[in-house]
Design goal:
362 residues, alpha/beta, eight-stranded mixed β-sheet, three-stranded parallel β-sheet, 13 helices, 19% strand
């Protein structure tokens, strides 16, 4: 039976006593001796603020590893948005004897030396969702330039005939330490440049509070009545921006997002966010698990990673890039509901019942 390291709670203690072979962990360094075997796979995720990682990525990954390798173990840690902590977590896993580490880097450049050290000790590293620098064996993510293009196009579509070269758009990008943020930005600019006036552009650091502050500064600089739309690189930041817009009595302007978080889907239903980008978590996590198990078993990854990308450190990396999908009010049923990411009941709580009815979600 798979042994997954879980929180050191009373429940996990009871499971251990029941001889299921599970050891305790926390968000920092999991277990005390769980990595001592030769079939341990590490999973390092970047933060616990972005809802997807704990709710979807981790359980999907663990379930797929169990399906592929019943006697494998998964050792898990979350960096809580701290790159130094993530480096320590990787070092701890290597010391414990973890053979393959799947990492979604909090800082793609800062993690390079840790990856090099792990590889020097015979550990294979898979970059997950974010392309880490250093000698990684494989990478799985989405076509992130395409994500930005979808965001930009959704903004233009929502603007309609208001999309002119004089229309002032606020652009709040992600954290520059995340290579994905640069790709989202690149894709969005490809679509928006020359079509609208990007009058204010800043990084929101993937934080709703920072994005809210930047939006407030944009309103002060540009004037509330002069803002035609807002590009937010992800849903967490879009939430902070939506609150700022509401406080400034700005309504009925497009606001983008990404990650298809439940709160964002509800904002789309309610009309306070115009779009998000759905990146199906299960295929991404499943592919990462398949790559990790293949590497653990000494197999090649070319059949799984059918393209190649170049990281910030110049390394050529076999990659699997999945296809993202734009989500608006019109296709909620055909995307996140159809894929069972959320049920209609999840979305249409009493607060959103009336809006859901208008959107055809019943």
């Amino acid at each position: 039976m798979r042994r997954v390291v879980i929180g050191a709670t009373a429940v996990s203690l009871a499971l251990s006593v029941a001889a299921c072979g599970k050891a305790g962990d926390d968000d920092s360094d999991s277990g005390s001796d769980s990595g001592s075997g030769n079939k341990t796979i590490g999973l390092l995720l970047p933060d616990n603020v972005t809802a997807r990682y704990e709710k979807f990525d981790r359980p999907y990954f663990e379930d797929k590893v169990e399906e592929l390798c019943s006697d494998c173990k998964v050792e898990y840690a979350n960096a809580a948005a701290d790159p130094t902590k993530q480096a320590q977590q990787m070092s701890t896993m290597v010391t414990k004897g973890v053979k393959v580490i799947v990492v979604s880097a909090q800082d793609s450049a800062a993690i390079k030396s840790s990856i090099q050290s792990a590889v020097d000790k015979g550990v294979k590293v898979v970059a997950y969702d974010r392309l880490a620098q250093g000698p990684v064996s494989a990478y799985v993510s989405f076509d992130n330039v395409k994500v930005g293009e979808l965001q930009g196009q959704a903004l233009l579509d929502a603007l309609g005939d208001k999309a002119t070269k004089k229309s002032k758009v606020v652009m709040i990008n992600g954290d520059d330490a995340d290579p994905n943020a640069g790709q989202f930005k690149e894709g969005a600019h490809k679509v928006l440049d020359g079509k609208v006036d990007i009058a204010y552009e800043q990084s929101g650091l993937w934080k709703d509070t920072v994005a809210a502050q930047k939006m407030s500064a944009a309103i002060t600089q540009l004037g509330a009545k002069n803002i035609a739309g807002v590009y937010a690189a992800n849903d967490g930041m879009a939430g902070g921006i939506a609150n700022t817009l509401k406080g400034a009595k700005i309504s009925n302007i497009p606001l983008t997002g990404q990650d298809a978080e439940l709160a964002a889907i509800q904002r789309i239903v309610a009309g306070t966010q115009s779009s998000t980008v759905y990146k199906a978590y299960k295929p991404e996590a499943d592919t990462a698990a398949e790559l990790a198990v293949a590497l653990l078993e000494g197999k090649g990854v070319k059949d799984l990673a059918d393209t190649e990308v170049t990281s910030g450190s110049g390394d050529k990396v076999p990659a699997k890039l999945l296809t993202p999908v734009s989500v608006t009010k019109d296709n909620i049923n055909d995307t996140v509901v159809k894929d069972k990411l959320y049920t209609v009941a999840d979305i249409c709580t009493p607060e959103y019942a009336k809006a859901c009815k208008s959107a055809g979600l019943e």
